[in-house]
Amino acid sequence: MAARARQQTENKAEADADKTERMRSTKVSRNPQRTHAAILEAATEEFAAHGFGGARVDAIAARAQTNKRMLYHYFGDKEGLYLAVLEATYATIRDAEKQLDLARRRPEEGMRELALFTWRHFLAHPEFLSLLATENLHHAHYLQRSEKVSVMHSHLIDELSDVLHRGEAAGIFRPAVDPISVYLTIAALGFFYLSNRHTLSTIFARKLTAPDALNAWGEHIVAVTLASIRV
Amino acid sequence: MAARARQQTENKAEADADKTERMRSTKVSRNPQRTHAAILEAATEEFAAHGFGGARVDAIAARAQTNKRMLYHYFGDKEGLYLAVLEATYATIRDAEKQLDLARRRPEEGMRELALFTWRHFLAHPEFLSLLATENLHHAHYLQRSEKVSVMHSHLIDELSDVLHRGEAAGIFRPAVDPISVYLTIAALGFFYLSNRHTLSTIFARKLTAPDALNAWGEHIVAVTLASIRV
DNA sequence: CCAACTTGTAACCAAATAGTTATATCATGC
DNA sequence: GCATGATATAACTATTTGGTTACAAGTTGG
Question: Which InterPro entries match (chains A, B) (predicted)?
Fold first, then answer.
């Protein structure tokens, strides 16, 4: 989410600056949206890097080039900030998933598309994986508080169900395959490989993050997923 | 590891107490092995529950029913204690893996055995999964310092290679299957399901940890693994 | 243009935290 | 049987931490 958030923030900040300058041509020495977004982005990095307990509020304020007063002003306390980070990160995922439109693809192509989409998404958002690991350490304590995240992946599961049914009708996928199991399988293969890459490469002495290795694992996910649902 | 460590500790403690009482029949008010093991067990729980940054040294000392002086006496500092926990936890895994003897099993049975073993092992050792997640958050910083953990899974990979070769020779497995990819597949399916169960069940509103669901997922791992390597 | 409100800074505080010291007690080799 | 080192306790300290307060300065509606 970091890159995207920064992009949006800067765009908004520039727009605000332009408007203000057109009106009175003063130096922009305050900019609430920018400060808010800068804190959120800094917090995302800090929480992803150190976990909830390891994250330092002072460090977040410093990284956002503001101070703690603003942080507490916008987000209440450390937990509120953490929850805001979680929700913003999930929102990014949800937005990205909307890009998927598998309805017109042939079943096997659709499954390939879905698996590679998930894999590339994990690759592009390492902070999402880290936050997920941290949140699970805390038994999803904070995520459960959020009303916004409840019906999160329904779009994805709907699209997946459709693909599976069409594959079944065409006689190439087994009948009554559970879409959630299929999704968990795809997510598991991508998540584990990336989130555990450091301990895995320490143990196996293998460069898991070389570009070739990453592409190969993406194809591996596709192959395993298809093999597991074909008749 | 917790249960096993506690068991060993208590056995040793009892043996020591017996010996001491036979010799002079004094109350046992000091017992280095027990203290050492109690600290290690308490630290395992604390680090697994809160991560490195979230773990509290005072809490560990209190949980071990000793005090910080002893903790620093035996383990140097917080990082030394964390490293000791990591090494002890990996040692438990390594010991368990030695129970595996797949050499005489038919290939498909061997694969099933290996997958279920890994799954049951993860189920029995949730603290291992949490510590792994924490360690990866820190880019395996501490694990890399340990010389002891380098050639960790070699036994497992050797056994797996043998099973794959025999399956290939029998014409039921595809040729030149990469054993590490197969192991990663098995581990990924188990690890992700368990370590992310809290966020997953929040999102999907499904009880992932019901006994039936757990058994079903174990069979799912077996089925997916076999489907991915069969000719 | 000014009163009310928002955004910002920096100094401050109480509690928590990792790590230490002083000191006492147990065990044991000589 | 006692000198010595290992094991234990609890009080202590310096620093860090999350969170607050006093106050300054920018912004805006009337």
Answer: Homeodomain-like_sf (IPR009057), HTH-type_TetR-like_transc_reg (IPR050109), HTH_TetR (IPR001647), NicS_C (IPR041474), Tet_transcr_reg_TetR-rel_C_sf (IPR036271)
